[in-house]
Amino acid sequence: MDSCMDKYDIKMLDRIDAAVTVCDKNLAVVYINDKAAATFASQGGASLKGKNLAACHKASSVEKIFRIMETGKPNVYTIEKAGVHKLIWQAPWRQNGEVAGVVEIAVELPDDMPNYVRS
C-alpha cells in the first residue's frame, strides 16, 4: 500500500519556513530547498546541489555527518549567528531500509519562544 506521502512532491519542502538540505552517503547535496538556498546564497545557493559537503565543512563537521550515518542517531543543537537563534536537526534518511544520507533542517527560533515542562 502506498503511503499518504506518495501523493506529495518533495518540492512542498520549498514552501516551509525552514532550511532543508539533504546529502547522500557520499556527501553530495541531493536536495536544497529555497530557504536553504537563500541561507547559503553567498556559498552558491541552489547551485550547491550536486556539490560535496566536504568541500565547505570543517573535518570535524564531516566526521559528525559520517557518525550520524553510522549510528543512525540524530545530532541536534541550537546556534546563534548574527543575533538569530536556530535549532539544527541533522538525522539520517533511509531508502529501502538502508541509510542513504543525512537531512539537515534549520529552524529559526523566536526570542520569546515559550518552553513547557510536562510531566
State the major sheet: 5 strands, antiparallel
Structural class: alpha+beta
Overall tally of domains: 1
Distance between the termini: 37 Å
Q: How much beta, percentage-wise? A: 25-35%
- Topology order in helix (H) and strand (E) letters: EEHHEEE
Instruction: Give helix % range.
Output: 10-25%
CATH superfamily: PAS domain
For the largest sheet, list the strands in their spatial order. Answer: 2-1-5-4-3
Unreliable segments of 5+ consecutive residues: 1-5
Q: Which architecture would the CATH scheme give at its second level?
A: 2-Layer Sandwich
Q: Enumerate how many helices there are, as a single number.
A: 2
Radius of gyration: 15 Å
Q: Please report the total strand number as a whole number.
A: 5
Mean pLDDT: 89
Please give the CATH class. Alpha Beta
Identify the overall geometry: globular
CATH topology: Beta-Lactamase
Describe this structure in words.
By secondary structure, the protein is of the alpha+beta class. The chain has a single domain, classed as PAS domain (Beta-Lactamase, 2-Layer Sandwich), CATH 3.30.450.20. The protein is 16% helix and 34% strand. It has helices at residues 34-39, 59-71; strands at residues 19-24, 29-32, 75-81, 84-95, 98-109. A 5-stranded antiparallel β-sheet has the order 2-1-5-4-3. The model is unreliable at 1-5 (pLDDT under 50).
